[in-house]
TrEMBL record:
Zn(2+) 2 binds at residues 166, 201, 426. Belongs to the peptidase M20A family. Keywords: Cytoplasm, Hydrolase, Metal-binding, Zinc. This is N-acyl-aliphatic-L-amino acid amidohydrolase. It is found in: Cytoplasm. GO terms for biological process: amino acid metabolic process. Zn(2+) 1 binds at residues 133, 166, 228. The active site is at residues 135, 200. One of its GO terms (cellular component) is cytoplasm.
Amino acid sequence: MYRYILPYKWIFLFSVCLQHDSYEPMFQHLYCLYLKGLITMLPDKDGPSGGGPCSTQGSSGEDPSVSLFREYLRLKTVHPEPDYDAALRFLDRIAEELDLPMKKIELFPRRVLSIMTWEGTNPALKSILLNSHTDVVPVYQEHWKYDAFTAVKDAEGNIYGRGAQDMKSVTIQYIQAIRRLKAEGSQPVRTVHLMFVPDEEVGGHKGMETFVTHPEFQKLNIGFALDEGLASPGEAFTVFYGERNPWWITIHCPGNPGHGSRFVENTAAEKLRSIINSFMDFRETEKQRLNMSQCFTLGDVTTVNMTMVQGGVAYNVIPAEMEVSFDLRIPPTVNLQGFEKQIKLWCKEAGEGITYEFAQKHMNQNVTSTEESDPWWNAFSTTCKAMNMVLEKEIFPAATDSRFIRAVGIPAVGFSPMNRTPILLHDHNEFLNEQVFLSGIDVYQRLILALSSVPAFPDETNPFL
Ligand SMILES: CSCC[C@H](NC(C)=O)C(=O)O
Ligand SMILES: [Zn+2]
Ligand SMILES: [Zn+2]
């Protein structure tokens, strides 16, 4: 099939047309071809896609870092069938531009994790990991203002696309920060690894969960990791030093079957009702606890949500089994053994023969130190302070790949530099403003230098060198 090849500035023209609803027939036609993948965009002749060190403006008037971010947003790494090959090609190109080696590890068929490495002047020291996932969650396109994979920028500079916050922005910010540092002639003392991980959005089993047990992971000799956080609507930036443990549980309630016209004893539905009441009553107390305390955030309480119910075959047949599933998120301060005992008690109280099983049951409760005496946290927080950034420390309410990193004993901070931004991860019309995005590159530039310059600890060596 014939593909047209057009320069980048055409994307700009398309987006202008979209913003102003001026569907000129010619543009409309070209835009349709672009959406169908029949037009390929070529870099403008003013340089590589990522642009130079100083964020010079491309011929479209757009900062090249923004253009690169928008290009990455257009790759359809969306579940259930993410185009990971497109992401790998894109990242290979970046590695070439940055002149950094890239290692690829196929964890499972079609699940490749890649690592770009900027070697430090003292590679014997523990390294810094800049982690990001390449996949994104699906969209309900009918609820979006624009196509979720065209990266439209509106008149206010808001860039719309699935992954704009979670977390393609952060990937490009890491990359552009390193591009600038290299162009300035900086060199890190500690080695810096950029890791691009598949399948975070579907639980991380074919991604980070497996990779932390891989010999190649050990070889990286990681001392400290940065990974995704959340946007924050106010002036302050949120940083996450731990996560709640996800427990996904299904409870099976067996019972006596019979005719729907009778009072059958000991039915599955009666047991199901008792189970639902126990979980939902607990939900209410935790909700009250959150609402009553000024100093609690969502990460400090247990959330309970009934997410699935199954059972029954016909209106007039009392079912022999019914089941209910809950999504529980448990803060690191909760005694997990005690909590499971409570679940067992609720099951016993509900009646005979009730069993349960877990689809997710994370037990590790490691948190990362935020003591000023901790050298990693100290480097992170003093750098932010020097940029007049206010940090709010929290427990991440959901689950990210950081949980696997912390579980193997490596400190990790969840941080996405997106203040003055509504939290829109996994939501319709996910966007990030280009100015907020660009400020984040400055933030990482300083953070990468500071973290990679944390002085050597006593006896710190890399056993793999
Ligand atoms: C437990 S695996 C699923 C991971 C997913 N992460 C996010 C950030 O949405 C979640 O918390 O549901
Ligand atoms: Zn994410
Ligand atoms: Zn996500």
